[in-house]
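Build the 3D complex.
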Amino acid sequence: MRYISTRGKAPALNFEDVLLAGLASDGGLYVPENLPRFTVEEIASWAGLPYHELAFRIMRPFVTGSIPDADFKKILEETYGVFAHNAVAPLRQLNGNEWVMELFHGPTLAFKDFALQLLGRLLDYVLAKRGERVVIIGATSGDTGSAAIEGCKHCENVDIFILHPHQRVSEVQRRQMTTLFGDNIHNIAIEGNFDDCQEMVKNSFADQSFLKGTRLVAVNSINWARIMAQIVYYFHAALQLGGPARSVSFSVPTGNFGDIFAGYLARNMGLPINQLIVATNRNDILHRFMSGNQYVKETLHATLSPSMDIMVSSNFERLLFDLHGRNGAAIAELMDTFKQGGGFSVEQERWTEARKLFDSLAVSDEATCETIAEVFAQTGEVLDPHTAIGVKAARECRRSLDIPMVVLGTAHPVKFPDAVVKAGVGKALELPAHLTDLLSREEKCTVLPNDLKAVQAFVSQHGNRGKPL
Ligand SMILES: *Cc1c(COP(=O)(O)O)cnc(C)c1O
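Done.
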């Protein structure tokens, strides 16, 4: 499989190189040159497979040429073996024909484990083969950091540095990062906000001289391998609900358009999906595009669903690329306009094409809490605020009651107790068994000023399993 850039100028890469790449050299994002396509009969024959075996069948075409089948199978079995639920991504029924797919049974209790548990293992496999080491520098406002550290903590050939804004992430989220020890794990609290952290990561990719030749790898959702891993659970859910003979719809709490883009790919690979709902919080750039064909940056608002607090959705470029007939020059031009502060609209027929599949809703904090309370009253289930946004959007935007609606349950409610308390749900939430002593564990973290040079100096001092690069 070869991968090409959405902006048309960077060289095509194989899977191994795309795994180790960040942005393409032309500023674009990598996508498969040709998407594999499965027949309905083929998909139907996968019914009842354990999660890791289904994952093997779906992801195999993406890695051919880079990872032999037997090795890939073993990696997938290990990856999904760490999930605390035997079904890995179980479905829970909320209402007639309405389901939540629980994607929070991984080590850090959010769906990001599906991709980052795999990414860590893939990196270690590829790096061992090449005899290379890499450094990861990532910024997090919460969920990504812990999932990335959990995914990479056993990697022999990876040193991971996670920047979070000092005193601006929740205690549970912070402790999920800072209580993991290892000479290749480095938590840095920056005396600044999340944007400052992200800016430092961006600048480190732009000038890597401080790494003295060691390669820098991206773990945010621009990394293709993350998207790839998320395609699997769309098939998994559909197969349990009568697919592919019957089509299924999904409602996806969305920030960077990564998770929902994986659903779009599942459909293009042959899975009958009737409707994909883009569910956002007040940071609604995607909803404004889907409802009114306006892609315009606005100011950032802090909400009760912080993992979706974004101004710009990086993976949206991948959808735009397809909507423009995979014309890289057109995307480069659009993104240039956007960067210069302008927003954009796309031509009417391209927007209409997107709207055949996608609907959207922006959900306020108030409506989020109302939905948590409503679902608790109806079912006794406590939803996390991100998942609640998905449920609200599913109920508002659903096209057909006859088609099963699956809401992606992106996090465990215990990660976001503020929203649950605000919703007036009186049920005490408990941390799962492997995390019960989280609040009393020892923490390790370095506080650094909001200064790029200080951070880069720290990385080069510690980037080789705690020793200088
Ligand atoms: C990251 C995250 C999201 C948003 O996912 P995207 O792929 O960025 O759209 C939603 N919910 C939770 C809990 C998350 O951690």
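DSSP finds 18 helices and 14 strands in the chain.
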